[in-house]
User: Fold Aldo/keto reductase from Ideonella lacteola.
Amino acid sequence: MTNLSPASLQMSALVAGAWRLGDWGFDVGQRQAWIEGNLERGLTTFDHADIYGGYRVEGLFGEVLAQAPGLRDRMQLVTKCGIKLTGPARPAHETHCYDTSAAHIIASVENSLRELRTDRIDLLLIHRPDALMDADEVAATFERLRRDGKVLHFGASNFTVQQFELLHSRIALETNQVECSPLQMGAIHDGTFDQAQRLRARPMIWSPLAGGRLFNEDSPAAHRVRWVMGEIGARLGVSTTTLAIAWLMRLPSRPIPVVGSRRLSATDEAVAALKLTLNPDDWYRIWSASTGHEVP
Assistant:
């Protein structure tokens, strides 16, 4: 277990992502086995969003907690809100848009609590930056949810440095969950991880394997990265998955990757990264392969 920020939420060093849980065709027993398999491997934190699976994934996960309620106290639940999708699951939504109003955040939390079959959310994130976000209103809403014991900690997802700074100035945020991988390095260079290091608020990382593009994308950058990572991985005796996770965890902001695979063997490869510390030479070889040039 590790602290997300000083004297804050304790969570696992790797997070189990539930985004695709609804695509795997698991029955409730298989879902329970997947959850328990992650717990056994030390992934005690599970990442959700209300919209995942067309508003279905939280309910699929919650069915397991209803069947095996003892699991809840062995885990931390992260979820997100602020995106409104249109469709049968939310017939009242007229437009696909963002909404960070107090009414929508509170309604989303109530839905998530009901779907997940739990009495509290450990960490709530605003899913995407909302151009109409009133920072004072969001902060007041977060305080209300914390006071009511429904949400214990708060953060953001996909926020720019300025957007995170604005909301953090009203209420302490624990993390900014952003995309990063050897094929997507924007957060390394746009100040996101510098801010995280300054605030000692560890970032969470979604798509650490570039959504699978690291293994199959037909682009010059992907080909270069695969070749270099294959050579380094062979020398170190680790898989590309292990190497990619270790590459991210080498960053001094100490990011926490979200890994979501139906195969627990793939999770084992991610867990192996916890024992691997890349030297700067290997780290920058992968950076150079992605950018297509050496450092200036």
Residues 2-174 form a domain with the TIM Barrel fold (CATH 3.20.20.100).
